[in-house]
């Protein structure tokens, strides 16, 4: 007999979080203006705060991370040019081909374990000499942490080696930093240190930071001024957006250090489920807050396991025939992890 639950433990993504009472209060009391005209003081404060955090000259508040990636490409590439990134990068696999549909560029994926490619991988990918009949690579994009790589964290040494090649070849650098602050907390590398080798970088507010919506793209003053043009063109101007920006300011004060709790819970979840017959963590012990589970050893399809877990009040992501994904966040407690492990065990027994 199933036990009734008051709520669902949602492990599908860290985008499912709800604003805390303190964040709601900050949003309700935010000072507002017109962000299109540059007169919303709360939006301006958020942009200044993120630019300082990432060590860049300027920043722009945008509705989504997809728009951040797209605009970063638009301000640094021309139609017909090429962007290099991991073959499992969100930019390539999960953004409806926005780079090609909107920016007119091609995106080449580099095969690499955990989504982390090396300088040698770049050298093997780009042409030694400029060819008229080959797309010109003008941007290298790195996703940190790499979602499909199990929340993998980029080593700074790798990044600087790639940066040197980029400088030598006249190629710009972009970081998809949706979970950059997770990488920073896990590695001890400051966000500004991670951002230093990149021409553009952004952070997501609606993932680990727990905001309802939004992302912030940072770079040089010239690039961000051009980004504003594309923000208007793409319909991203939001008027009294201080209501949303206030959530971001609150999160930057209250929700960065606590990301380690999510990482700890992810490790506990992976360890607990890894003790069950037929279940293993695809990427070993999680570095951050993402756990991919290989359930092929159970001979039960992932979709079936997902349905049974949901009936027990546990929501988990189904990625493929025998792969599940769980992401920990501020609305999942350590006690929830214990409950999820027990629920998973019961489902497999049934």
Cα-atom radius of gyration: 21 Å
- Measured between the Cα atoms of the first and last residue, the distance is 11 Å
Count of separate DSSP helical elements: 14
Indicate the CATH topology of the largest domain: Aspartate Aminotransferase, domain 2
Give an overview of the whole structure.
Keywords: Coiled coil, Pyridoxal phosphate. Residues 10-295 form the Aromatic amino acid beta-eliminating lyase/threonine aldolase domain. It comes from Sphingosinicella rhizophila. Belongs to the threonine aldolase family. This protein has helices at 21-28, 41-54, 65-74, 90-93, 98-103, 119-125, 156-169, 180-187, 191-195, 221-233, 242-254, 259-274, 302-311, 334-349, and strands at 9-10, 58-62, 82-86, 106-110, 137-143, 172-177, 200-204, 215-219, 280-281, 290-294, 314-315, 317-320, 323-327. The protein is of the alpha/beta class. The protein folds into 2 domains: 9-16 and 258-349, Aspartate Aminotransferase, domain 1 (Alpha-Beta Complex), CATH 3.90.1150; 31-254, Type I PLP-dependent aspartate aminotransferase-like (Major domain) (Aspartate Aminotransferase, domain 2, 3-Layer(aba) Sandwich), CATH 3.40.640. The radius of gyration is 21 Å and the shape is globular. The model is unreliable at 1-5 (pLDDT under 50).
């Amino acid at each position: 007999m199933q036990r009734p639950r008051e709520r669902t433990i949602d492990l599908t993504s860290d985008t499912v979080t709800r604003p805390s009472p303190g964040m709601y209060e900050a949003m309700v009391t935010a000072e507002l203006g017109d962000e299109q005209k540059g007169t919303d003081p709360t939006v301006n404060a958020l942009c200044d705060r993120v630019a300082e955090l990432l060590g860049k000259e300027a920043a722009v508040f945008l509705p989504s991370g997809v728009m951040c990636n797209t605009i970063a490409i638009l301000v640094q590439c021309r139609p017909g040019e090429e962007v290099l990134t991991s073959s499992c990068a969100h930019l390539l696999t999960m953004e409806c081909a926005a780079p090609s549909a909107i920016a007119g560029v091609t995106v080449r994926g580099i095969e690499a374990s955990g989504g982390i490619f090396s300088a040698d991988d770049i050298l093997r990918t780009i042409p030694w000499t400029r060819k008229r009949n080959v797309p010109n690579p003008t941007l290298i994009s790195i996703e940190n942490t790499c979602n499909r790589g199990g929340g993998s964290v980029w080593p700074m040494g790798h990044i600087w080696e790639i940066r040197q090649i980029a400088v030598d070849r006249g190629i710009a650098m972009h970081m998809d930093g949706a979970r950059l602050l997770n990488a920073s907390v896990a590695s001890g590398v400051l966000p500004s240190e991670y951002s230093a080798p990149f021409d553009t970088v952004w952070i997501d507010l609606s993932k680990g930071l727990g905001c309802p919506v939004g992302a912030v793209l940072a770079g040089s003053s010239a690039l961000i001024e051009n980004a504003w043009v594309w923000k208007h063109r793409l319909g991203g101007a939001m008027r009294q957006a201080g209501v949303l920006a206030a959530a971001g300011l609150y999160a930057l004060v209250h929700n960065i250090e606590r990301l380690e709790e999510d990482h700890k819970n992810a490790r506990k979840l992976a360890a607990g489920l890894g003790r069950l017959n037929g279940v293993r963590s695809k990427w070993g012990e999680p570095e951050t807050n993402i756990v991919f589970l290989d359930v092929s050893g159970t001979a039960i399809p992932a979709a079936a396991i997902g349905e049974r877990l949901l009936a027990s009040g546990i929501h988990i992501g189904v990625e493929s025939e025998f792969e599940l994904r769980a992401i920990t966040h501020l609305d999942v407690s350590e006690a929830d992890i214990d409950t999820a492990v027990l629920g998973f065990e019961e489902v497999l027994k049934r």
